[in-house]
Amino acid sequence: MKLSSPFSSKEEVIPLIEAGANELYCGIVPNEYSKKYSYTLNRRHGYGANFDSFEELEKSLIIAHRKNVKVYITLNCFYVQEQYPLILKIIKKLIDIDVDGFVLADIGLLFLLRERGIKKDICMGTLGTVFNSKAVSFYYKLGVSRIILSRHLTINEIEVIASNSNKTELGVFILYEPCHYVDGFCTLHAPDTSKKIGQAVVAKNKNVSFISSHLAFNGSGCSLVDSPRFIFNDKTGKEIKINEKSFPPVISNNLICGACAIYDFNKIGISSLKIAGRGMPIDLKIKGTRFIREALNIVKKKDISKEHFIKEIQQLHGKIYGMMKCSGFNCYYPSVFSQKNNLKMR
Amino acid sequence: MIEKAIFISKIANLKYMSSRYTRLYFGNEFCQKLLPSINELEKVLNYCGRKKLSFSLVTPYVTDEGLKDVEQLLIFLKNNKLRLNCEVIINDWGVLDMLNEKDYKLQPVLGRLLTKQSRDPRISSMINRKSQSLELMKLGNKRTLIFMMKPPSTLASYYKESNTNVPVIRDFLLKQRINRIDLDNLFQGINISPGKDNLFTSLYVPYGYIATTRLCSANPFQNRVKYHCRISFCKKECQKYTLRIENPVMLKTIFKKGNTIFFKNTKVPSQRYLKEKGINRLVYQPEIPV
Predict the structure, then answer these.
(1) Distance (Å) from the alpha carbon of A171 to chain B's nearest alpha carbon
(2) Does residue A191 form part of some domain?
């Protein structure tokens, strides 16, 4: 299984490769684009999540290629007609600096790349909303070489998809940054907060980040829509005010982990594991990459049982991340711990 | 002439039917556990036959298990004795692949989960901002000073568009036998390029969907199971409750029913506007379609 890690500066390339990544991905939003369309070129929102210079990206590519590591560029938003000329211009520059492939969401862009005979690897990201093997077949016919499955699938559902889809490489998310809503079906706007201007002192001892933005909102989308104030009973027609805390919170723990599922993914034939991390600090990206690489080494051990594998992974997780207990709240694939087996979260 | 359709997700809501509607949408877009049974589909088809209504079966995004259920409904629809001219609203590319693989003689329509629009209710006020400002905001858990720039006109136009305006996508949809696309009625307005092709547009009113999930919070809410918004656990509590969310940041009232959140835009565009935009069908939802 390949391990794909995110990066956002050339300084991160070597540490991530040394930690065990054998593929890297990143985003770029050139100023020419952000002036017109803000940060709508990809879904990598957050401080410093994107490159804005082709030169810096090219230097990163040279470093990665020297280590035989492929680099993919995320172009995983949905676009409208007037954006395509500029996006295609950006893609041309990316090809000139020798990127290895693209992570897409938009079928329009996929058609345009194919029309222009661009032969780079095309990966359909989770925004492609693949929940079944027929959807895999749909994208395969369009020339997609790898599909990242939706985060919202159980291990059994992934197994069924994989058993019916032997022509396409399948990937899954394994660590960090969950999305409570299906990301390809979520239209909550992520604020364009990538452009950091500096630090500002707003009050005595209150040092805050200073950014520029076209569209920024207080709070984050998911938490805003999951704090209901009133509940309406459809049968009685009565509406009552409720305590927000009585409602289950969204799954939003950034350190969410799915490493216990690697045993199953290995058996199922999943070909790549993806670590999320738009705008995440480099130390967490390295820590996560090292953790998953180590998990991949453990799963290769001859005759290791699932129980033994999970025990080792949970010990390793404790060693790397401290005392954070596993719960339904920070587990990507809780279906690993089904009632049919005796496996337990840490 | 604008066709008027009504969209219901349960048989009991046939009570909303009136003579102004000539088409019935029935089914679910957001959850495979809410797909109608064959028995329910048969009842609704018979109703359509009696009332001389056209029929559209609404299908959700599905796993392989859900695909089997959708397949059974398609087979039933194909063999319906009334020989109604039936549409299938597609919200999963896999369902389209299955529909086109066999000759079901059913007309596919691109549902609103696959017609990409910017549905966040906050966008309308943000793109209409007339001046620059300096604001202190809480982004996630961090307080941040933001220099709010006036959005460029290109961005305002972007948020009104849909990817179904893109010629290369329209060509593809037509090749896939799709002849209609379904859109939501956005607060910021919509830009549609009424093409010279044969791809028609429907507009859903008054509810628009914002986001959907398989980590459904309806069940843990009712059953008080903390932190377990998970996939398999379902007692269809979504059929009992609707949540109304008033949030000063969200600016508009939003609703949550089951696994999906919605906005409500009661401003129905004028006939002239619809005609200008090439919209020839209005899909009215008397209730949130969950």
Answers:
(1) 16
(2) no
Q: Which chain A positions have a beta carbon within 8 Å of B158's beta carbon?
A: 37, 40, 80, 82-83
Give me the pLDDT at residue A149, please: 98
Interior/surface letters B59-87, b for 16+ CB within 10 angstroms, e for the rest: bbbbbbebbebbbebbeebeebeeeeebb
Q: Which of A115, A214, A329 sits opposite B151 (nearest CB)?
A: A214
Q: Are residues A100 and A175 in the same domain?
A: yes
Looking only at the bridges linking them, the beta strands covering B86-90 and B107-110 are parallel
CATH 3.40.50 fits B3-284, yes or no: no
> What is the ipTM score, two decimals?
0.93
Tens digit of pLDDT for each residue in A91-134?
A: 999 999 999 999 999 999 999 999 999 999 999 999 999 999 99
Q: H/E element holding B136? A: strand B133-139
Confidence of residue B137 (pLDDT cuts 50, 70, 90): confident
| Residue A335 to residue B213, Cβ atoms within 8 A | no
Is the domain of A176 the same as that of A214?
Answer: no
Residue B193 has a pLDDT of: 77
Tell me how close the Cα of A246 comes to any Cα of chain B, in angstroms: 7
CATH code assigned at A327: 3.20.20.70
Give me the residue spans of the domains in chain B.
3-284
Q: Across the interface, do B166 and A84 touch by the CB < 8 Å criterion? A: yes
Q: How many CB pairs under 8 A join A and B?
A: 275
Cβ of B146 and A239 within 8 Å? no
Six-digit token string for A249: 């919170």
Distance CA A159, CA A143 (A): 22
CA B76, distance to chain mean position in Å, is 24
Q: Which of residues 271-290 of A touch B (CB under 8 A)?
A: none
